[in-house]
Protein backbone atom coordinates (compact mmCIF):
# COMPACT_ATOMS: atom_id res chain seq x y z
CA UNK A 1 0.00 0.00 0.00
CA UNK A 2 1.37 3.38 -1.02
CA UNK A 3 0.67 6.29 1.32
CA UNK A 4 1.22 9.80 0.00
CA UNK A 5 1.13 12.72 2.44
CA UNK A 6 0.67 16.21 0.98
CA UNK A 7 0.73 19.57 2.77
CA UNK A 8 -2.92 20.38 2.05
CA UNK A 9 -6.07 19.32 0.23
CA UNK A 10 -5.27 21.39 -2.87
CA UNK A 11 -2.00 19.50 -3.35
CA UNK A 12 -3.88 16.18 -2.88
CA UNK A 13 -6.41 17.15 -5.57
CA UNK A 14 -3.73 18.29 -8.01
CA UNK A 15 -1.82 15.03 -7.57
CA UNK A 16 -4.91 12.83 -7.99
CA UNK A 17 -6.16 14.71 -11.06
CA UNK A 18 -2.68 14.47 -12.61
CA UNK A 19 -2.55 10.75 -11.87
CA UNK A 20 -5.98 10.15 -13.43
CA UNK A 21 -4.99 12.14 -16.54
CA UNK A 22 -1.70 10.24 -16.78
CA UNK A 23 -3.47 6.86 -16.39
CA UNK A 24 -6.04 7.66 -19.08
CA UNK A 25 -3.35 8.82 -21.51
CA UNK A 26 -1.13 5.82 -20.79
CA UNK A 27 -4.02 3.43 -21.55
CA UNK A 28 -4.57 5.04 -25.00
CA UNK A 29 -8.30 4.29 -24.77
CA UNK A 30 -10.46 3.71 -27.84
CA UNK A 31 -14.20 3.26 -28.43
CA UNK A 32 -13.65 -0.50 -28.30
CA UNK A 33 -11.34 -0.45 -25.29
CA UNK A 34 -12.33 2.55 -23.15
CA UNK A 35 -10.70 3.52 -19.87
CA UNK A 36 -13.01 2.62 -16.98
CA UNK A 37 -12.99 5.05 -14.08
CA UNK A 38 -14.78 4.57 -10.74
CA UNK A 39 -15.86 7.85 -9.14
CA UNK A 40 -17.02 9.17 -5.76
CA UNK A 41 -19.11 12.10 -4.62
CA UNK A 42 -18.75 14.14 -1.42
CA UNK A 43 -16.59 17.12 -0.49
CA UNK A 44 -13.23 15.41 -0.85
CA UNK A 45 -13.18 14.87 -4.65
CA UNK A 46 -14.49 18.36 -5.55
CA UNK A 47 -10.97 19.73 -6.05
CA UNK A 48 -10.09 16.74 -8.25
CA UNK A 49 -13.07 17.40 -10.50
CA UNK A 50 -12.17 21.11 -10.76
CA UNK A 51 -8.61 20.19 -11.70
CA UNK A 52 -9.71 17.57 -14.28
CA UNK A 53 -12.04 20.14 -15.87
CA UNK A 54 -9.05 22.53 -16.15
CA UNK A 55 -6.93 19.81 -17.73
CA UNK A 56 -9.73 19.15 -20.23
CA UNK A 57 -10.14 22.86 -21.02
CA UNK A 58 -6.39 23.17 -21.56
CA UNK A 59 -6.60 20.21 -23.97
CA UNK A 60 -4.36 18.07 -21.77
CA UNK A 61 -6.93 15.27 -21.48
CA UNK A 62 -9.95 13.93 -23.33
CA UNK A 63 -12.81 11.93 -21.83
CA UNK A 64 -14.09 10.77 -25.22
CA UNK A 65 -13.21 7.16 -24.52
CA UNK A 66 -13.68 7.16 -20.76
CA UNK A 67 -16.48 5.18 -19.12
CA UNK A 68 -17.45 6.02 -15.54
CA UNK A 69 -19.16 4.09 -12.76
CA UNK A 70 -20.17 6.04 -9.67
CA UNK A 71 -19.84 4.36 -6.32
CA UNK A 72 -23.26 4.94 -4.89
CA UNK A 73 -26.61 6.74 -4.89
CA UNK A 74 -29.20 7.51 -2.24
CA UNK A 75 -32.44 5.55 -2.29
CA UNK A 76 -35.46 7.69 -3.08
CA UNK A 77 -33.80 10.75 -4.62
CA UNK A 78 -34.55 11.56 -8.26
CA UNK A 79 -31.69 12.52 -10.58
CA UNK A 80 -32.78 16.16 -10.53
CA UNK A 81 -32.84 16.37 -6.72
CA UNK A 82 -29.91 18.61 -5.82
CA UNK A 83 -28.78 16.12 -3.17
CA UNK A 84 -28.75 13.14 -5.52
CA UNK A 85 -25.39 11.92 -6.69
CA UNK A 86 -26.66 12.10 -10.29
CA UNK A 87 -27.12 15.84 -9.81
CA UNK A 88 -23.80 16.23 -8.00
CA UNK A 89 -21.81 14.50 -10.75
CA UNK A 90 -23.36 16.49 -13.58
CA UNK A 91 -23.12 19.82 -11.75
CA UNK A 92 -19.55 19.32 -10.60
CA UNK A 93 -17.98 17.36 -13.43
CA UNK A 94 -19.82 15.76 -16.34
CA UNK A 95 -21.42 18.98 -17.66
CA UNK A 96 -17.95 20.46 -18.22
CA UNK A 97 -16.11 17.67 -20.02
CA UNK A 98 -16.48 15.74 -23.27
CA UNK A 99 -17.84 12.53 -21.78
CA UNK A 100 -20.59 10.82 -23.74
CA UNK A 101 -23.82 10.40 -21.68
CA UNK A 102 -23.93 6.74 -22.68
CA UNK A 103 -20.59 6.23 -20.93
CA UNK A 104 -21.87 7.52 -17.57
CA UNK A 105 -23.15 4.94 -15.09
CA UNK A 106 -24.82 5.86 -11.82
CA UNK A 107 -27.05 3.57 -9.78
CA UNK A 108 -30.76 4.38 -9.98
CA UNK A 109 -31.98 5.24 -6.49
CA UNK A 110 -35.58 5.28 -7.69
CA UNK A 111 -35.61 1.69 -8.91
CA UNK A 112 -38.38 -0.58 -7.68
CA UNK A 113 -36.14 -3.63 -8.08
CA UNK A 114 -32.95 -3.09 -6.05
CA UNK A 115 -31.59 -6.58 -6.61
CA UNK A 116 -31.86 -6.28 -10.40
CA UNK A 117 -30.43 -2.76 -10.46
CA UNK A 118 -27.41 -3.92 -8.45
CA UNK A 119 -26.88 -7.09 -10.47
CA UNK A 120 -27.13 -5.15 -13.74
CA UNK A 121 -24.52 -2.68 -12.42
CA UNK A 122 -22.07 -5.44 -11.56
CA UNK A 123 -22.66 -7.01 -14.98
CA UNK A 124 -22.10 -3.70 -16.74
CA UNK A 125 -18.76 -3.27 -14.95
CA UNK A 126 -17.79 -6.82 -15.92
CA UNK A 127 -18.82 -6.24 -19.54
CA UNK A 128 -16.24 -3.44 -19.74
CA UNK A 129 -13.56 -5.74 -18.36
CA UNK A 130 -13.64 -4.24 -14.85
CA UNK A 131 -12.71 -0.87 -13.39
CA UNK A 132 -9.23 0.36 -14.32
CA UNK A 133 -8.94 3.03 -11.66
CA UNK A 134 -11.26 3.48 -8.70
CA UNK A 135 -11.18 6.80 -6.85
CA UNK A 136 -12.86 7.04 -3.46
CA UNK A 137 -13.11 9.08 -0.31
CA UNK A 138 -13.30 7.68 3.21
CA UNK A 139 -15.96 8.21 5.84
CA UNK A 140 -15.09 9.34 9.36
CA UNK A 141 -16.14 5.80 10.36
CA UNK A 142 -13.78 4.24 7.80
CA UNK A 143 -16.41 3.48 5.19
CA UNK A 144 -15.56 3.31 1.50
CA UNK A 145 -18.44 4.03 -0.88
CA UNK A 146 -21.39 3.33 1.48
CA UNK A 147 -19.81 0.17 2.85
CA UNK A 148 -20.27 0.94 6.50
CA UNK A 149 -18.36 -0.72 9.37
CA UNK A 150 -18.87 -4.50 9.49
CA UNK A 151 -19.67 -4.71 5.75
CA UNK A 152 -18.42 -7.95 4.25
CA UNK A 153 -15.10 -7.67 2.49
CA UNK A 154 -16.57 -9.76 -0.34
CA UNK A 155 -19.72 -7.64 -0.72
CA UNK A 156 -20.98 -6.67 -4.17
CA UNK A 157 -23.32 -3.88 -5.27
CA UNK A 158 -26.36 -3.86 -2.99
CA UNK A 159 -28.64 -1.81 -0.76
CA UNK A 160 -27.15 -0.59 2.53
CA UNK A 161 -28.58 1.16 5.55
CA UNK A 162 -26.40 4.13 6.48
CA UNK A 163 -24.66 4.29 9.85
CA UNK A 164 -25.84 7.05 12.22
CA UNK A 165 -22.39 8.68 11.97
CA UNK A 166 -22.67 8.85 8.17
CA UNK A 167 -26.17 10.33 8.36
CA UNK A 168 -24.84 12.95 10.80
CA UNK A 169 -21.77 13.71 8.59
CA UNK A 170 -23.91 14.05 5.45
CA UNK A 171 -26.64 16.12 7.09
CA UNK A 172 -24.54 19.21 6.22
CA UNK A 173 -25.91 18.83 2.67
CA UNK A 174 -29.49 18.54 3.99
CA UNK A 175 -29.88 21.79 6.00
CA UNK A 176 -28.10 20.07 8.92
CA UNK A 177 -31.30 18.10 9.48
CA UNK A 178 -30.62 14.39 9.98
CA UNK A 179 -34.28 13.56 9.33
CA UNK A 180 -33.87 14.78 5.73
CA UNK A 181 -30.93 12.44 4.95
CA UNK A 182 -32.05 9.24 3.18
CA UNK A 183 -31.40 6.31 5.47
CA UNK A 184 -30.49 3.89 2.69
CA UNK A 185 -28.38 3.86 -0.44
CA UNK A 186 -27.34 1.60 -3.27
CA UNK A 187 -23.58 1.09 -3.20
CA UNK A 188 -20.92 -0.92 -4.93
CA UNK A 189 -19.44 -3.49 -2.56
CA UNK A 190 -16.02 -3.82 -1.01
CA UNK A 191 -15.47 -6.78 -3.35
CA UNK A 192 -16.34 -4.53 -6.29
CA UNK A 193 -13.78 -1.94 -5.14
CA UNK A 194 -11.11 -4.56 -4.53
CA UNK A 195 -11.58 -5.95 -8.06
CA UNK A 196 -10.53 -2.61 -9.56
CA UNK A 197 -7.07 -2.75 -11.07
CA UNK A 198 -6.00 0.29 -9.07
CA UNK A 199 -7.64 2.04 -6.11
CA UNK A 200 -6.96 5.54 -4.78
CA UNK A 201 -8.53 6.59 -1.49
CA UNK A 202 -8.35 10.29 -0.63
CA UNK A 203 -8.61 11.69 2.89
CA UNK A 204 -8.47 15.35 3.81
CA UNK A 205 -9.24 17.09 7.08
CA UNK A 206 -8.89 16.23 10.73
CA UNK A 207 -12.25 14.44 10.95
CA UNK A 208 -10.71 11.63 8.86
CA UNK A 209 -7.65 11.22 11.12
CA UNK A 210 -9.01 8.33 13.20
CA UNK A 211 -10.25 6.46 10.10
CA UNK A 212 -6.84 6.91 8.47
CA UNK A 213 -5.01 5.72 11.59
CA UNK A 214 -7.15 2.61 11.72
CA UNK A 215 -6.81 1.99 7.95
CA UNK A 216 -3.02 2.25 7.93
CA UNK A 217 -1.79 1.23 11.37
CA UNK A 218 -4.33 -1.33 12.57
CA UNK A 219 -4.61 -4.87 11.24
CA UNK A 220 -7.30 -5.40 8.60
CA UNK A 221 -10.62 -5.25 10.39
CA UNK A 222 -14.19 -4.94 9.21
CA UNK A 223 -14.82 -2.23 11.80
CA UNK A 224 -12.81 -0.06 9.43
CA UNK A 225 -13.77 -1.15 5.89
CA UNK A 226 -11.00 0.95 4.27
CA UNK A 227 -8.38 -1.22 6.03
CA UNK A 228 -8.98 -3.84 3.31
CA UNK A 229 -6.81 -1.59 1.11
CA UNK A 230 -3.87 -3.30 2.82
CA UNK A 231 -4.72 -6.31 0.64
CA UNK A 232 -4.90 -4.45 -2.68
CA UNK A 233 -1.92 -4.92 -5.01
CA UNK A 234 -2.17 -1.36 -6.29
CA UNK A 235 -3.75 0.64 -3.49
CA UNK A 236 -2.86 4.28 -2.87
CA UNK A 237 -3.99 6.36 0.10
CA UNK A 238 -3.43 10.09 -0.32
CA UNK A 239 -3.89 12.37 2.70
CA UNK A 240 -3.28 15.93 3.75
CA UNK A 241 -1.40 16.74 6.98
CA UNK A 242 -4.66 17.09 8.91
CA UNK A 243 -5.79 13.57 8.03
CA UNK A 244 -2.54 11.98 9.26
CA UNK A 245 -2.61 13.71 12.66
CA UNK A 246 -3.32 10.45 14.48
CA UNK A 247 -0.65 8.36 12.72
CA UNK A 248 2.48 7.80 14.79
CA UNK A 249 5.52 9.92 13.91
CA UNK A 250 7.56 6.90 12.72
CA UNK A 251 4.71 5.88 10.35
CA UNK A 252 4.51 9.38 8.90
CA UNK A 253 8.29 9.57 8.56
CA UNK A 254 8.44 6.15 6.88
CA UNK A 255 5.96 7.02 4.15
CA UNK A 256 7.38 10.52 3.61
CA UNK A 257 10.93 9.12 3.24
CA UNK A 258 9.77 6.63 0.63
CA UNK A 259 7.93 9.24 -1.40
CA UNK A 260 10.95 11.56 -1.28
CA UNK A 261 13.03 8.81 -2.86
CA UNK A 262 10.61 8.01 -5.73
P1 LIG B 1 -16.69 13.44 2.13
O1 LIG B 1 -17.25 11.96 2.14
O2 LIG B 1 -15.74 13.51 0.98
O3 LIG B 1 -17.89 14.32 1.91
O4 LIG B 1 -16.02 13.67 3.44
C1 LIG B 1 -16.38 10.90 2.01
C2 LIG B 1 -17.13 9.59 2.16
O5 LIG B 1 -18.12 9.54 2.90
O6 LIG B 1 -16.70 8.59 1.55
Commentary on this structure:
The protein is of the alpha/beta class. 33% of the residues lie in helices and 17% in strands. The protein is built from 8 helices and 10 strands. Strand 2, helix 2 and strand 3 form a beta-alpha-beta unit. It is globular, with a radius of gyration of 17 Å. The mean pLDDT is 97. The structure holds 2-phosphoglycolic acid. The site of 2-phosphoglycolic acid (PGA) has 6 residues, from loops.
Please summarize what this structure is.
By secondary structure, this protein is of the alpha/beta class.
Topology:
Layout: E1 2-6, H1 9-27, E2 35-39, H2 46-57, E3 66-70, E4 72-74, H3 85-92, E5 104-105, H4 114-127, E6 133-136, E7 158-161, H5 164-170, E8 184-187, H6 190-195, E9 198-203, H7 209-217, E10 235-240, H8 249-260
Parallel strand pairs: 1-10, 2-3, 2-6, 3-5, 6-9, 9-10
Antiparallel strand pairs: 4-8, 7-8
The protein binds 2-phosphoglycolic acid.
Q: What's the Cα radius of gyration?
A: 17 Å
Strand content: 15-25%
Give the distance, in angstroms, between the N- and C-terminal Cα atoms. 14 Å
Strand order of the biggest β-sheet: 1-10-9-6-2-3-5
> Please, what is the oligomeric state?
single chain
Mean pLDDT: 97
**SSE class:** alpha/beta
SSE pattern: EHEHEEHEHEEHEHEHEH
Bound compounds, each kind once, are:
2-phosphoglycolic acid
Shape: globular
- The helical percent reads 25-40%
| Low-pLDDT segments | none
The helix count comes to: 8
- Per DSSP E runs of 2 or more residues, the count of β-strands stands at 10
Biggest sheet character = 7 strands, parallel
Amino acid sequence: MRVIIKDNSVDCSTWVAGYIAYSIKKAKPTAKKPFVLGLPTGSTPLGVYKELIKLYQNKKISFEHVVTFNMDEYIGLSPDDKNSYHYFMHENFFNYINISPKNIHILNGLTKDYAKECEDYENAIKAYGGIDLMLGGIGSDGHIAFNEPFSSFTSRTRIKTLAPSTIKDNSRFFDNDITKVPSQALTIGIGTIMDAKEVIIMATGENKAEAIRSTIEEPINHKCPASILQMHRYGIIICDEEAVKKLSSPTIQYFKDIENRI
